Amino acid sequence: MLNDPLFLVVAGACLLVVVILIFGIANFGKGTMEAAKRSNQMMRWRIYAQFAAVVLILLFVWLRK
Questions:
Q1: For residue 29, what is the DSSP state?
Q2: How many CA atoms, within 13 angstroms, populate the side-chain half-sphere of residue 64?
Q3: How far apart, in Å, do the first and last CA atoms of the chain sit?
Q4: Which of 37, 41, 56, 65 lies in the 20 to 30 Å Cα band around 23?
Q5: pLDDT over 80 (residue 23)
Q6: What share of the chain is helix, strand, coil (3-state, %, to 5)?
Q7: pLDDT of residue 35
Q8: How far from the centroid of its chain's Cα atoms is residue 10's Cα?
Q9: Contact predicate 18/42, CB 8 Å
Q10: Using CA atoms, how far apart are residues 59 and 65, in angstroms rounded to an integer?
Q11: Burial 8-44 (b: 16+ CB within 10 A, else e)
Q12: What is the band of 59 on the pLDDT scale with cuts at 50, 70, 90?
């Protein structure tokens, strides 16, 4: 599977979701209003990245049946 480029793209998308989630939670813990706005924006980016990751996972499963 590690030789499959689509699998690597899917794994990278999932890793991106985790990284965005960690940064969003870290910003949320700062407690300032600016950090809360930034955290909210990061969580919005996480939703978009998570949607893309799910679409890529479904594409991977569909193509590799």
A1: T
A2: 11
A3: 14
A4: 56
A5: yes
A6: 85, 0, 15
A7: 84
A8: 10
A9: no
A10: 10
A11: eebbebbebbeebbebbeebeeeeeeeeeebbeebbe
A12: very high
Flag whether pLDDT at 32 surpasses 90. no
Secondary structure element (H or E) that encloses residue 2, with its range: none
Q: What is the Cα–Cα distance from 40 to 58, expressed in whole angstroms?
A: 27
Q: Which residue has the tokens 């893309």?
A: 52
pTM of the model: 0.85
Residue 42 one-letter amino acid: M
* Residues in the chain, total: 65
